[in-house]
UniProtKB/TrEMBL annotation:
Its cofactor is [4Fe-4S] cluster. It comes from Formosa undariae. The gene is mutY. CDD domains: ENDO3c, NUDIX_DNA_Glycosylase_C-MutY. Residues 35-186 form the HhH-GPD domain. This is Adenine DNA glycosylase. Its EC number is 3.2.2.31.
């Protein structure tokens, strides 16, 4: 029995019932794939359902404002995905009259769509023979075939794509692609997979050589940097505060946050007060400062760790640019800020 046949037979018995598997509508498939990038299904599913409910068509998504989309995306992280989603929706509506590209090559023209997403949409919606390669596929193929080429290298990307393209079921590429992804997600898991019930255990290289934990191979990432964030939560007698929109490039682009002071180390109350004396917004005003969280909140991103302190700054008068605290939850914010807002309960 061939690799693809064993895989698709396993999938027919073990696949999970998920809403995007009940359709071939490219809008819903695209939406699910973007949401599930770097996100587990159990986390992404509620977001998918919310997006489909609020934006049932690509026209609804295209005509929404960015703040509304970012607010709905809040908590998923990697916010560039949401901005790209909006950009691509507007492109489909304005340039393509609301009709999604119908092949792999043209799907790649959508902002935020790479090889994996284009292959998924092309195969599932249009039966194009284009193999998907994501983290799950890398893991399955590297273990089964004993491939030590680093998966995060250009050589690895080409090698695994070529192998997947060779293995794909030419008559039913959609089922094969979904099967290999599902197999990696629930059977050939990153840690402690149950190889005793695996349909490939008699021929799997990694299982036979006892090298399950060695594969796939990945080049070590660069050293993670540390940053120290001091968020200023202003409170006035009229129950107002300040939120600022982040400008420029970055993972939190266009999201809102409390005014921020970055420092080279964790600040003491005295050091923070010295910083506040230089702020234009507090010139000529009386204020009291207190640290909300005794221990730093460490927010871990892929390339940096943010050591965060929230400072409550009670001011004796109103402030320029203030908003009612009752409106704070209306703004799209990073999950770090969202967690504080929920905990502080203005």
């Amino acid at each position: 029995m061939t690799f693809s046949k064993i895989l698709t037979d396993w999938y027919s018995v073990n696949k999970r019932q998920l809403p995007w598997r009940q359709t071939t509508n490219p809008y819903y498939i695209w939406l699910s794939e973007i949401i599930l990038q770097q996100t587990q299904i159990k986390q992404g599913l509620p977001y998918y359902e919310d997006f489909v409910s609020v934006f049932p068509t690509v026209f609804d998504l295209a005509h929404a404002n960015e703040a509304e989309i970012l607010k709905l995306w809040q908590g998923l992280g990697y916010y560039s995905r949401a901005r790209n989603l909006h950009f691509a929706a507007k492109y489909v509506v304005e340039d393509l009259n609301g009709v999604f590209p119908t092949n792999y090559k043209d799907l790649l023209k959508l902002k935020g769509v790479g090889d994996y997403t284009a292959s998924a949409i092309a195969s599932i919606c249009y039966n194009e023979v284009s193999a998907v390669v994501d983290g799950n596929v890398y893991r399955v193929l590297s273990r089964y075939f004993g491939i030590y080429t680093p998966i995060n290298s250009s050589k690895g990307a080409k090698e695994f794509k070529a192998l997947a393209q060779e293995l794909i079921d030419k008559k039913d590429p959609a089922t094969f692609n979904q099967a290999v992804m599902e197999f990696g997600a629930i059977q050939c898991k990153p840690k402690s997979p149950d190889c005793t019930v695996c349909p490939f255990n008699s021929s799997c290289f990694a299982y036979g050589k006892d090298e399950i934990t060695e594969l796939p191979v990945k080049i070590k990432a660069a050293k993670v940097s540390k940053k120290y964030f001091n968020f200023l939560v202003f409170l006035t007698p009229d129950h107002t505060t300040i939120l600022e929109q982040r400008q420029g490039k970055g993972i939190w682009q266009n999201l809102y946050q409390f005014p921020l002071i970055e420092s080279k180390k964790a600040l003491t109350s005295k050091e923070l007060e010295q910083e506040l004396e230089n702020l234009e917004v507090l010139k000529g005003k009386t204020f009291d400062v207190s640290l909300y969280n005794k221990n730093e909140i460490v927010h871990k991103l892929s390339h940096q760790h943010l050591y965060t302190q929230f400072w409550i700054v009670e001011v004796d008068t109103n402030l320029k640019g203030e908003i009612p605290v009752s409106k704070v939850e209306d703004f799209p914010v990073p999950i770090l800020i969202g967690n504080f807002i929920e905990d502080f309960n203005f």
